């Protein structure tokens, strides 16, 4: 399973052992292949760099939705432990979302369907 996406550089330049001067721009950044763009202030937008992400309330998800602000919303109870997965297939060169929820996952207003995928 993919590790949670870091939102900032976790190691400062002065902590990197190197004889060359350090420049934040020189630090290799992962290749971003997609972005989850939030339309809700309680959810951050996330750059996608891993080949698989799971989103839900469960602690094993790579994107966990359990902040106090989200828990206070009326929709929190509708989010499943693992609500959906986003999977990047690098062989076939496509990305799909798989609905794993009890209450449905929607793309552009259309319900995907339990255990079904949408490219």
UniProtKB/TrEMBL annotation:
Point to the regions of Acidic residues compositional bias.
14-24
Q: Which residues form the FHA domain?
A: 53-112
Region labeled Disordered — which residues?
Answer: 1-24
SMART domains recorded: FHA
Task: Please provide an example of a Pfam family that matches this protein in its UniProt record.
Answer: FHA
Q: Its domain of life?
A: Eukaryota
- In Swiss-Prot or TrEMBL terms, this protein is called FHA domain-containing protein
Source organism of this protein record: Rotaria magnacalcarata
Source lineage: Eukaryota, Metazoa, Spiralia, Gnathifera, Rotifera
């Amino acid at each position: 399973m993919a590790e949670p996406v870091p939102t900032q550089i976790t190691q400062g330049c002065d902590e990197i052992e190197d004889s060359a001067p350090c420049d934040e721009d020189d630090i290799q950044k992962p290749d971003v292949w997609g972005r989850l763009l939030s339309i809700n202030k309680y959810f951050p937008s996330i750059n996608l760099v891993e080949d698989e992400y799971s989103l839900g309330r469960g602690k094993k998800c790579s994107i966990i939705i359990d902040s106090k602000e989200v828990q206070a919303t009326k929709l929190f109870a509708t989010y499943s432990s693992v609500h959906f997965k986003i999977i990047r297939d690098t062989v076939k060169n496509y990305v799909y979302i798989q609905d794993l929820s009890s209450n449905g996952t929607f793309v552009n207003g259309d319900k995907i369907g339990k255990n079904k995928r949408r490219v």
